[in-house]
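Risk mitigation, structural track. In case the binding assays with iron/sulfur cluster fail to produce interpretable data, a predicted complex structure has been prepared as a fallback.
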Amino acid sequence: MKVICAENMGFCSGVKRALDMVLNERNAYTLGQLIHNPQVVELLEKKGIKVVNSVDEADRTLIITAHGTPKSNIEKAKKKELRIIDTTCPLVKRVHELAVEFDKKEYKIILLGDKEHQEVKGTASNAKDVTIISSDEEASKMKLDKACFLSQTTQSLEKFKEIADILKKNIPELKIFNTICDATKKRQDSAMNLAKKVDLMIIIGGYNSANTKRLKEICNKIVETKHIEKADEIDFEWFKDKKIVGLTAGASTPDQVIKRVKDRIEKY
Ligand code: SF4
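Fallback model:
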C-alpha cells in the first residue's frame, strides 16, 4: 500500500514546550491530560505525574496543561499553596489577553469553540460577558451593538470565517480576531490538500483531542476517513480496492506513534 504523509502533522510547538517543561518533574499532578494522547499520558504516569480532574485532588505540584485552565483553578491552587507549573501555550494566552482587553472596553466576547473544552472554559473565565457559540444558528441569534469575536485555537478556519460573516450582519461594531493557531491551520490545510489526492485518509490522535477531531471532520468531507489512536486499531479491510492512503496526525501525536501506523499500513 502506498502511504503519503501530510506535509504538516504531529506535535506542535505548544505541545513540545509543555512536555519539555515537565519531563524532569516527579510526583506532580496535571489538571486534565497534559496532552490528549494515551501513550504520552502513560509515559508521564511512569514518572509519577498523575492526571487529576480537580485542584482538590492535587498535592505539592500542579501542572496546568497547554490548553490553559479557568482562573478559578489557579486561584484555588494558590490558596492551597501548590507549586504551579503553567504550560499554557503562548498562543492560548494571547486569546486570554484579548478577552481581558475587550472585556475592559465593555465589549461582549463571542467565543467560537466547544463549551466543554478546557481551553474554552479558560478563555471564558477572563471576561464577565461571554457567549460561547459553535453553530450558524447560535451565531444568527447574536444581535448586539458591539462585540469581540474570538476562537478556540483549534477550530477550523472555514467555520470561523462562516460564523464571522453571520455575526457581521447583526453587530455593527464587531472586532474580529482570528485566534486559530498557525500550527492548527497548517495541519488542516495539509490534511485537506492530501485528502484530495488519496483513496482513504487515516487520522492519528487521541479520541478526546479537539484538533484531531477537526482534522477528521475536514477530511471526511473530501474522502473516506478513519480516526485511530494507535497502529493496532488498523483494520486491513479498510484498504480493499484502495491504492493510496493519506496519513496525518493531531498536534499531540508523538512521532513514534505515527511511524508505527505508517509501517503497519505499508505492510498491507
Ligand atoms: S495547537 Fe496551537 S495553540 Fe494548541 S498547543 Fe499547539 S501551538 Fe499552542
